[in-house]
Amino acid sequence: MSIPFSNTHYRIPQGFGNLLEGLTREILREQPENIPAFAAAYFENLLEKREKTNFDPAEWGTKVDDRFYNNHAFKEHESPENGESAKEKSRGSVKEDETPVTALEPSEEEKEKEENAALKIQAVFRGHLAREEVKKMKSGEPQEEKREENE
């Protein structure tokens, strides 16, 4: 007999997920042999800290989650005409008023750096060509000597 699957999602109390995350983090860090006893000691220690400092990590985590999931700053309200938001309209008007930007001439210091870089590249390439030519000359010399010896 099979068990049918469903799309039901169970809701857990606010802050409980944060408590379990903290417990999981400590279990992975400490790696105790007796996890249930470690969890009991962890929660007792957490209760003592909460009573002494009046700071509840579960409550704090709930507030952080709430702020993350219910952040109204990123929500845009749709305007009734043409489905465009107010921000898109304002962007469009700014684009019409903008003037084209031209590239600035590089400063003297930048020009000097570019020229030095070009000189280095050219010198390295010339050195490469010279080394290649020397290799050709060296590989050609033994062949000429062998020809002379054979004659």
From TrEMBL:
Gene Ontology annotations for the cellular component aspect, listed alphabetically: cytoplasm; external side of plasma membrane; neuron projection; sperm fibrous sheath; sperm principal piece
Any one GO molecular-function label of the UniProt entry: calmodulin binding
SMART domains per the UniProt record, alphabetical: IQ, RIIa
Membrane topology term: Peripheral membrane protein
Ranges of residues in domain RIIa: 14-51
Family annotation (Pfam families): IQ (PF00612), RIIa (PF02197)
UniProt key word Membrane: yes
Main localization, broad class: membrane
Compartment list: Membrane
TM regions (residue ranges): none
Coiled-coil ranges from the UniProt annotation: none
InterPro entries: cAMP_dep_PK_reg_su_I/II_a/b (IPR003117), DD_CABYR_SP17 (IPR047579), IQ_motif_EF-hand-BS (IPR000048), Sp17 (IPR012105)
UniProt feature, compositional bias: Basic and acidic residues: 71-98, 129-151
Keyword set includes ATP-binding: no
A Gene Ontology biological process term: binding of sperm to zona pellucida
Positions of the UniProt region annotated as Disordered: 71-151
Gene3D superfamilies hit by this protein: 1.20.5.190, cAMP-dependent protein kinase regulatory subunit, dimerization-anchoring domain
Function description: Sperm surface zona pellucida binding protein. Helps to bind spermatozoa to the zona pellucida with high affinity. Might function in binding zona pellucida and carbohydrates.
PANTHER family membership: NEUROMODULIN (PTHR10699), SPERM SURFACE PROTEIN SP17 (PTHR10699:SF16)
Protein's recorded name: Sperm surface protein Sp17
Organism of this sequence: Ursus maritimus (Polar bear)
